[in-house]
Amino acid sequence: MRPILKSNKLDDVCYEIRGPALQIARQMEEDGHKIIKLNIGNLAVFGFDPPDEIVQDMIRNMQSSAGYTDSKGMFAPRKAVMHYTQEKNIRGVGIDDIYLGNGASELIVMGMQGLLNSGDEVLVPMPDYPLWTAAVSLAGGNPVHYMCDEQAGWLPDIDDMRRKITPNTRAIVVINPNNPTGALYSRDVLLEIVELARQHQLIVYADEIYDKTLYDGETHTSIASLADDVLFVTLNGLSKNYRSCGYRAGWMVLSGEKRHAKDYIEGLNMLASMRLCANAPGQYAIQTALGGYQSIADLVAPGGRLTRQRDLAHQLLTDIPGVTCVKPKAALYMFPRLDPKIYPIADDQQFICELLSEEKVLLVQGTGFNWKTPDHFRLVFLPNSDDLTDACGRIARFLDGYRRRHAR
């Protein structure tokens, strides 16, 4: 029979966070092995529960959740998001500028599908959260990766960004706080990005899903708060700050220069209508979450669980010979570097699979985040301190063996 092939639109699409190594891990689990999974920021499995008031509100409203809602979302949660944009100093946002989605991920794909024609380019950070690269490719566009500079704390290289703008460039993606590096961008850096967008009439897509997961007293600036003459599309949600990954409750906000974007907005409205609506129970969680006690502050405070685990993981990893790591200022991850002179890695996916096979620890290789060389990996520091110590000890043991095997 004729083989049934996947669409060629998927040729350049990948999502290594749930890639081949995870499939191997699942098979190992079926064979009876216990795997320490540090590949994904799935908070619930590590004992980070959502605020109880969110859970209770969803339960109370379940009877009212059977019908379709407005295609952009219910009024009350959109109003809550509008108030949140005011707190973030994003001006001029009305109810119609807000779209609720099944997590921010759905809205990222929607935003790219509504914008891009074949051959259009979007500047995406390197390293990036790989859904952005995949969404651009799936929409027919070309992702063009601009460098983030590890020596500068993983801040965007503005000169590199500038060099990569062409007549085909439509937008710049800014992931701040950053996944996978944990970097937090300063106001000055954000203003430079805004100026590039202004000069070249580009849209700025701002992924701010970790905007409350900040350490050491750091504060977050929404790039959309810095100008009114550029079109901004800001994405956020409940998954991380409110430990509600499975509830799939996110939002997309349009702000800034919207007058020249009427046709694009019409396309977004069409796409929102085609998916009918976001899930209703998740929408009921949004107003309660944004208006309730912000328990994330306890977790990231000095001595809070996330802060303790970040500090522990950073110490344990950087104690390993040949491993360096910029300490994250935000988010749930770190992106350590393996000195290529000590760890001559040709294929970092194979490297990750060898670690998994030998030590039962699952990570994601740096090239899975569109990093250019096989010398980084991403680690999720969500396990409790004992489990994190165990996991990092296994990584250290594997790297010790790797060094010995490849010693010159």
Search tags:
eight-stranded mixed sheet, three-stranded antiparallel sheet, alpha/beta, globular, 13 helices, 408 residues
Distance between the termini: 52 Å
Give helix % range.
25-40%
Largest sheet: 8 strands, mixed
- The count of strands amounts to 15
Structural class: alpha/beta
Mean pLDDT: 95
- Label the overall shape: globular
Instruction: Sketch the topology as an H/E string, one letter per element.
Output: HEHHEHEHEEHEHEEEHHHHEEEHEEEH
How many helix segments? 13
Spatial order of strands in the largest sheet: 2-9-8-7-6-3-4-5
Q: What is the CA-atom radius of gyration, in angstroms?
A: 21 Å
What fraction of the residues are assigned to beta strands by DSSP?
Answer: 15-25%
Poorly predicted ranges (pLDDT <50, ≥5 residues)? none
What would you say this structure looks like, in words?
- The protein is an alpha/beta fold and 408 residues long.
- The chain has helices at residues 20-30, 52-60, 75-87, 103-115, 130-138, 158-163, 187-200, 262-274, 280-291, 296-300, 305-318, 348-359, 385-405; strands spanning 36-37, 98-101, 121-126, 142-149, 155-156, 169-175, 203-207, 231-237, 250-256, 323-324, 333-334, 337-338, 361-362, 364-365, 377-380.
- A hairpin with a 5-residue loop joins β4 (142-149) and β5.
- α1 runs parallel beside α12, α3 runs parallel beside α9 and α11 packs parallel to α13 (385-405).
- The mean pLDDT is 95.
